[in-house]
Amino acid sequence: MGKVAVATTVVCSVAVCAAAALIVRRRMQSSGKWARVIEILKAFEEDCATPIAKLRQVADAMTVEMHAGLASEGGSKLKMLISYVDNLPSGDETGFFYALDLGGTNFRVMRVLLGGKQDRVVKREFKEESIPPHLMTGKSDELFDFIAEVLAKFVATEGEDFHLPPGKQRELGFTFSFPVKQTSLSSGTLINWTKGFSIEDTVGQDVVGELVKAMERVGLDMRVAALVNDTIGTLAGGRYTNPDVVVAVILGTGTNAAYVERAHAIPKWHGLLPKSGEMVINMEWGNFRSSHLPLTEYDHSLDFESLNPGEQILEKIISGMYLGEILRRVLLKMAEEAAFFGDVVPPKLRIPFIIRTPNMSAMHSDTSPDLKVVGNKLKDILEVPTSSLKMRKVVISLCNIIASRGARLSAAGIYGILKKIGRDASKDGETQKSVIAMDGGLFEHYTQFSEAMKSSLKELLGDEVAESVEVILSNDGSGVGAALLAASHSQYLEPEEDSETSQS
Ligand SMILES: Nc1ncnc2c1ncn2[C@@H]1O[C@H](COP(=O)(O)OP(=O)(O)O)[C@@H](O)[C@H]1O
Ligand SMILES: O=P(O)(O)OC[C@H]1O[C@@H](O)[C@H](O)[C@@H](O)[C@@H]1O
């Protein structure tokens, strides 16, 4: 063979060897990086684990904190706020009432014509608006002017069906989905904002006063007959259709729970004992924290960078505002440490809250064989042009870990409440029916979440007691509930012969 031919052969052989070595090195590198992806996934799964024993510890801690929060002001991270609702709707309520519901994402206005036990809700009209994000961190007047303007426009569309009797003032139930220290059924001061809100000049103010001033500014003559948290409204709305409702839970942008407590079991309550012997408590359970909660590095960094660091710890690991953000944070770590999306981290992946929980649940419920919904969401949201099936399967695993943790902890919280009110066990063979009224877009729309919550609750209760506990979706119970509470505290009600409250 000539020298040139030999040289060419040698060069080609070297090139082939180099290419092979490069492929092997790339393969080894990618297999090394993939091993890191799996390592991150496994560590996350372990840190989020909620075995039944842990759920029982969380439930017990919830019960303990409930006692502490009822014993004294500031006695617990659980605020256990007294609602001044000591009588839930009787079903006899009649008349024409407005309700408005300021939530963490949406703002709803509603009018209801109540027809008493016979006709119940004769007619209901409502309108829902998204809250402009800039109003969540602006000035108090800007937010309340927005609310008053939407309400005034809605009132202007009143039809013949909703005709106010002459000489009567319109009355309103105001549902305010934030922690408020109630000073009466129709007044209360904002303790602090939560979720995506942070408006300094509202804190400490009476939110009914803020609304009334804004209504005056737009020339709307309406009396606020009741101020309630959305969990209280949901409890009232739930009880209206089901007398066994004793607990209400919201799983929406945020999360919270309310329940019917025995008035004598509230040491910090020094008011007149209600005739009913009961008082509805707004737990503000989103602020619950415990060493038993399975918190991860992603939860700690999310909390640290949030608008309310150190607050709402339970809310930040189970509610709709945050689940998608937790998913983003884990994917970002995989991208940075294991080139999950290739050598370049997708710039969009660094934007907080870019993965909304509705998108997470859409990916989680992808049943296509090639997980094309996951692929499309990665493309549309993160601008990741292509993704392999094994990458998409990792995304599904992360959704499952995050949603299962949130759902199972929600069940533990409910179980803790049932233990507090003695509904977690059967007594001499008898088990009182207990109904949990649920509301909130997360519970209503994230099926894997709601199913996991219900099955975990059954697991905690055991088969026998689980027979007597029912979980129902009471959607927009808070709207009807607020209208019902306004009706039962209307200025036009005939005064009761005997006082509603007996001497303590
Ligand atoms: N399809 C969905 N899948 C998962 N979560 C959802 C879905 N739709 C809405 N959500 C969650 O529900 C929240 C809205 O809850 P909702 O109760 O309707 O309003 P608000 O929280 O303002 O009272 C959203 O912030 C979102 O986190
Ligand atoms: O209906 P939303 O907006 O999801 O609110 C649920 C809960 O969100 C929490 O952040 C509030 O402190 C509670 O008061 C509220 O009930």
How are the strands of the largest sheet arranged? 1-11-10-9-12-13
Mean pLDDT rating: 93
Quickly name the level 1 CATH class of the largest domain. Answer: Alpha Beta
Output the structural class. Answer: alpha/beta
Strand content: 15-25%
- SSE run: HHEEEHEHHEEEHEHEEEHHHHHHEHHHEH
Q: What is the helix tally?
A: 17
Largest sheet: 6 strands, mixed
Q: From the alpha carbons, calculate the radius of gyration and give it in angstroms.
A: 27 Å
Shape: elongated
Weakly predicted, low-confidence segments: 497-504
CATH architecture of the largest domain: 3-Layer(aba) Sandwich
Q: Report the helical percentage.
A: 40-55%
The tally of domains stands at 2
Bound molecules: adenosine-5'-diphosphate, 6-O-phosphono-beta-D-glucopyranose
Our measurement of the CA-to-CA distance between the termini, rounded to an integer number of angstroms, reads: 114 Å
* Strand tally: 13
Q: Under CATH, the topology of the largest domain is which?
A: Hexokinase, domain 1
Can you give a write-up of this model?
This protein has 504 residues and is an alpha/beta fold. It has helices at 3-47, 52-71, 116-119, 133-136, 140-155, 207-217, 230-241, 297-304, 313-318, 320-338, 357-364, 372-382, 389-420, 441-445, 447-461, 463-466, 477-487; strands at 81-82, 94-102, 106-115, 121-130, 170-176, 180-184, 187-190, 222-228, 245-251, 255-262, 278-282, 434-439, 469-473. 6-O-phosphono-beta-D-glucopyranose (BG6) binds at residues 103-104, 177-179, 194-195, 229-231, 250, 252-256, 284, 286, 315, 440. 6-O-phosphono-beta-D-glucopyranose binds next to helix 7 and strand 10. It holds the Pfam family Hexokinase_1.
